[in-house]
Amino acid sequence: MLELQDVHSYYGTSYILQGVTFSVSEGKCVALLGRNGAGKTTTIHTIAGLHKSKRGSIRFKDKQLQSLSPHQISHLGIGLVPQGRRIFSSLTVKENLTMSARKRKANDGRINWGLEKIYELFPVLKEREKNLGTQLSGGQQQMLAIGRALMTNPEFLLMDEPSEGLAPVIIDQVGDIIIKLKETGLSILMVEQNIALACKVADEILIMNKGKIVWNGTPDGLMKNEEIQHKYLGV
Amino acid sequence: MSIFLAQLLTGLAYGMLYFMIAAGLTIILGVMNVVNLAHGTLFMLGAYIVFTFISDELNFWIALLISVLLTAVLGIILEKLLIKHVYGKELEQVLLTFGLSFIIADVVKWIWGTEMQTLPVPALLDASLSIGEMVFPLYRLFVVFIGCLLALLLWYLESKTRIGAIIRAGVDDRAMVGALGINVGLVFTGVFAFGAALAGLSGALGGPLIGMYTGMDNEILVTSLIVVVIGGLGSWKGSFISAILVGVIETFGKVWFPSLSMLIVFLIMMVVLIIRPQGLFGREVA
Q1: Is residue B234 within 8 Å of residue B194, measured between CB atoms?
Q2: Torsion angle, CA of B163/B164/B165/B167, rounded to 10 degrees?
Q3: What's the pLDDT tens digit per position in A103-136?
Q4: Superfamily of chain region A2-233
């Protein structure tokens, strides 16, 4: 569904993505792991169009993404749950959800996400719908960020460190939500630092180091391979 | 007493006029981070467009509508052609918009000449309202009414509509708004056109009050910049309060201390900035 082929990208003069190649098939959840500075967030930003790649191809359902702007990429069906959540601070919880709302284009029998459906999935957001987005706890903000992306009815979700800064019990909840979303048929590419969460929800693990994918395999394969864990993830 | 009230109404009418001008300026500043120094010339253009169409025997209101539409279209053209290339580049913005103000001002001189002109008060409002011994010109009451109506409209658009939420979100985090599928470029064009249309509207309504003359564009620009600074950059609510303040104080200043009237306005700005550097309703800057 999503396919990156030899993608290179720069921030100023620093060479961040040095030929990234991988793909995510429909309905799968792929987790991208790696140390800080490995290029994980840049990968997400490059797919979402927030950062332009210099070379290589990014294909989503047979469309090339690299020359499109972020809003066009979003309209192709890619949703973003960004690092740090980036909740709009001057909007209420409800406004954060409704400002980006878009109906599902394809009639493919999947859930058509709307305010009611989001509130069903995250009842706490309904309770706090009149609060400003930034008055929520970290976990609630993460749910709001996920809900906001779902409101655009994406077929593919980019999640950048959904566990960042959350208490362990909340991380478990986020994991359950991601599994639920996968069951609705959503394909997911997730960047994580939390290996346990990644292995719990993902079908495939990619490990990134210095701008390249250096390992890929199943969660089981990663758990058994202590050398890789030690070498690239600092476990 | 009646003179005092009449002066107060005059001050309020000027204040509302300043508000209508400053609203466009401050909205463009708040949303797009652009100080549009051509805003004063758009105001002047608005007045001259009405002047032209009224001479063609059109009714004031139709001329006003044409003026608002034409300034909005000009706003779209300016944004698409020029302004959009200088987002995030402050020095370029200043040079570009200041240059535009010279060009538009010269075009105005070329078309309409340098003679002082006035717009007639529309027939419907060319009357006075007498309450007891007090006489209020109807047109001034009307300008105050339109100013309040505009404030109400802005409040509604900002806090009750989806486009208002999108614009506020854009001020918080522009890139994220784009990543959620909203065409930020289109929003910016719309906001700039809206701001330009407000300049045109206030020019049309201001024509009968202050007339048209060479240099009015800069005078109006300076006054509206003061209003924006006192009110807090980017806050139209702040501009509403500060415009009333400036209009009323300036009017009374002209009566009581004729030689100091402009100075007084600057003094208020100084005092406000000393006490609240971010302006009355400005966002705090860390």
Answers
A1: no
A2: 90
A3: 877 667 788 899 999 999 999 999 999 999 989 9
A4: P-loop containing nucleotide triphosphate hydrolases (3.40.50.300)
Alpha helices in chain B (DSSP H): 2-32, 39-55, 60-81, 90-112, 138-160, 162-172, 174-179, 184-210, 216-231, 236-256, 261-275
By residue range, what is the domain housing residue B138? 2-213
Whole-Å CA distances, B173 to A44, A89, B96, B179: 17, 9, 25, 10
**Nearest Cα to B230, choosing from B281, B264, B193?**
B281
Range with the poorest average pLDDT among B81-85, B117-121, B147-151: B117-121
CB–CB contact B172 A91 (8 Å): yes
Question: How many domains are contained in chain B?
Answer: 1
Q: Best of B180, B186, B188 to disrupt the A interface by mutation (most A CBs within 10 Å)?
A: B180
Best residue in A80, A98, A100, A144 for a mutation probing chain B (most B CBs within 10 Å): A100
Chain-chain contact of B168 with A90 (C-beta, under 8 angstroms): yes
Task: Compute the distance between CA of residue B223 and CA of residue A212 in angstroms, rounded to an integer.
Answer: 57
pLDDT tens readout for residues A146-200: 999 999 999 999 999 999 999 999 999 999 999 999 999 999 999 999 999 999 9
Residue B118 has pLDDT above 70, yes or no: yes
Query: If you count them, how many residues does chain A have?
Result: 235
Residue B263 lies in a domain: no
Question: Nearest CA of chain A to the CA of B173: how many Å?
Answer: 7
* Chain B contact present for A150, CB below 8 A: no
Residue listed under structure tokens 């139709």:
B62
Q: Looking at this predicted complex, what is its ipTM?
A: 0.92
Q: Centre a 10 Å sphere on the Cβ of residue B109 and count the other Cβ atoms it contains.
A: 11
**pTM score, whole prediction:** 0.90
The whole-angstrom separation of Cα B148 and Cα A235 is 64
